[in-house]
Design a protein that fits this description.
Layout (H helix, E strand, L loop, with lengths): L12 H6 L2 E2 L5 H10 L3 E4 L3 H5 L1 H10 L7 E5 L4 H7 L6 E6 L5 E6 L2 E6 L5 H11 L6 E4 L10 H4 L8 H16 L3 E5 L6 H18 L5 H8 L4 E2 L3 E4 L7 H10 L7 E2 L5 E2 L2 E5 L3 E5 L15 E3 L1 H15 L1 H13 L5 H4 L3 H15 L11 H12 L9 H4 L3 H19 L8 H12 L18 H8 L14 H5 L2 H4 L9 H11 L5 H12 L1
Parallel strand pairs: 1-5, 2-3, 2-7, 3-6, 4-13, 7-8, 8-9, 14-15
Antiparallel strand pairs: 4-5, 10-14, 11-12
Helix pairs in contact: 8-9, 9-10, 13-15, 13-19, 15-24, 19-23
């Protein structure tokens, strides 16, 4: 069983279907031809998340019979992905959905009709990209290039109309569209970063402004990019975990007789494969602001709404219903010796810890965005996402850069309690999380054994603050904590001014009582909620 078998005239669909493989319900060749001649969607970023989510929901739309165009993918960074994971398989992929029950679902994704290398050195591919941008039918370009992909370097701005960074290349292609007729287009980020539409707009504008200043392009090009009747940059919120190719998945596919199950590691250390494995849960909430129409991705589950609602969904996720739970369990999980998030979810204290943070302490400040129910969102996180045995995520990874995360993930909730005059006595486990950070910084687990804390730009500085504290030393001076918990850059506000400083100090004293104190203190406060 190979992916390219599906394109054969003698393809035996019944064999695949008998083994649980969902096959495309549309004419792959016909969709590819229509897309080539009149493309509607071009996506930048050929990584695993693209195939597992945007391409997959388009596949569902095509399966419905209500749409007939695929998506063209362009890779602007790691060109080996195109050479090794796309073209040898005729752009087909197998999506393996990892169920929290420990089973998998298998679906062949055939919505990607072309794969291109977005770089001037590949003349044939670049010329095709220019042709696509010159086509009036093109409705949107999208991105999954990670937040750093939107960066702009001064040296790249000096390269003129042949830049090497992604935003520069996109700006150059938009200039081709401008010259062809100033056709309308939507530039849509689907990366997991706040207000992502603003990031892609800022990146493109930086190049366009520089080119206008140096006389490389007319001022009208900048006006075109700024005209919201011509070009828009909507916000979106995307949420789906797509880990590296999983060994257990490879074994399951091999047992089926599916041969395209090898892991591909590029020279740039991208881990990919002809298949992509991803969690079953997914959310894509998009600001519906398009100037030239758009593919009907709602047929695959995308939620289209207003910018305000996208912002509310993102705030709900980042400050209350997901990210804070991740951070809380990572701080305590590391100290309790865990190396898998899924394993932590079998620990009654840790499970109760994050469940009560979400439902009891964070929920009073949540704005219900309407399109996603906050209670159901947390329920899915706790009951499906975090316990998923296929998710090899570790508290050590999640605790990276904790000092940068605390202001948003907990500080915003505390600020809302203060601003709205809510009962501060309702906050117990969030203060316990922040108290745990002072214990975590000591880099000693619950047994008193040293561990290597994850990287953090403030790690050494904050560790120096708690350096005077000793595990198990009676009657020691904890006054150094005032230096820590008054830092607005770490917690988003002065926790003493918020009325929580002394409460947190008391919890820190309990956590430093001696070996076993982390478990004892966690159990005490979780049980009391």
């Amino acid at each position: 069983m190979k992916l390219t078998d599906i394109l054969s005239e003698n393809f035996n669909a019944s064999e695949w279907e008998a083994k649980g493989y969902e096959l495309p319900k549309f004419d792959i060749a016909e969709v590819a031809k229509k897309t080539h001649d009149n493309p509607t969607w071009l996506h930048f970023g050929a990584g695993n998340i693209f195939r597992a989510f945007p391409a997959a929901i388009l596949n569902d739309a095509l399966n419905s019979g209500k749409y007939d165009r695929g998506v063209i993918v362009a890779e602007s960074f790691d060109y080996e992905i195109i050479d090794k994971a796309y073209r040898p398989y005729s752009n087909l992929a197998l999506l393996v959905s990892l169920q929290s029950s420990g089973t998998i679902e298998k679906k062949v994704i055939a919505s990607v009709t072309e794969s291109l290398k977005a770089d001037f050195q590949f003349a044939q591919d670049w010329n095709r990209l220019v042709e696509i941008f010159q086509t009036p039918s093109l409705q949107m370009i999208t991105f999954t290039i990670t937040e750093k992909g939107y960066s702009v370097a001064p040296a790249d701005l000096e390269r003129g109309l042949t830049p090497v960074l992604a935003m520069g290349k996109v700006a150059a292609l938009l200039y081709e569209r401008f010259k062809a007729g100033q056709y309308p287009l939507t530039v849509q980020s689907t990366d997991n970063c706040s207000h992502n539409g603003d990031k892609v707009k800022a990146g493109i504008m930086a190049y366009a402004q520089k080119w206008v200043e140096t006389g490389l392009v007319p001022a009208e090009f900048l006006a075109y990019l700024q005209d919201e009747k011509k070009v828009t940059y909507p916000w979106s919120m995307i949420d789906k975990i797509t880990p590296r190719p999983h060994e257990k998945v490879q074994e399951m596919l091999a047992a089926d007789g599916f041969e395209d199950n090898e892991t591909i590691i590029t020279d740039k250390k991208t881990f990919t494969a002809p298949f992509v494995n991803a969690e079953e849960v997914q959310y894509l909430v998009v600001e519906d602001n398009y100037t030239n129409g758009r593919p009907p991705l709602e047929l695959g589950g995308a939620l289209y709404t207003t910018r305000k609602t996208v912002d509310e969904v993102e705030t709900m996720k980042v400050t209350t219903c997901l990210n804070p739970l991740h951070t809380a369990m990572s701080i305590y999980g590391v100290m309790l010796g865990y190396d898998l998030i899924s394993a932590e979810m079998a620990d009654e204290d840790l499970r109760g810890f994050i469940q009560k943070i979400g439902y009891i302490e964070a929920m009073p400040v949540v704005t219900d965005p309407g399109v996603l129910n906050p209670y159901e969102f947390i329920g899915t996180v706790i009951n499906k996402r975090l316990p998923n045995p296929f998710m090899p995520d570790a508290p050590q990874r999640i605790s990276t850069d904790t000092s940068q995360k605390l202001p948003i993930r907990f500080g915003e909730t505390i600020k809302k309690y203060v601003a709205r005059g809510l009962d501060m006595s309702n906050l117990v486990l969030i203060p316990l999380t922040l108290a745990g950070y002072a214990r975590f910084l000591k880099a000693l687990d619950d047994n008193g054994n040293p561990f290597t804390p994850s990287t953090d730009p403030l790690l050494e500085e904050l560790q120096a603050i708690v350096a005077p504290l000793e595990l198990g030393k009676p009657e020691q001076d904890f006054s150094c904590l005032k230096q820590l918990y008054s830092r607005k850059d770490v917690f988003g506000l002065d926790l003493y001014e918020a009325g929580l400083g002394e409460q947190i100090e008391g919890m820190v004293k309990e956590l430093y009582a001696g070996p076993g104190a982390v478990r004892t203190t966690l159990h005490k406060y979780v049980s009391a909620r």
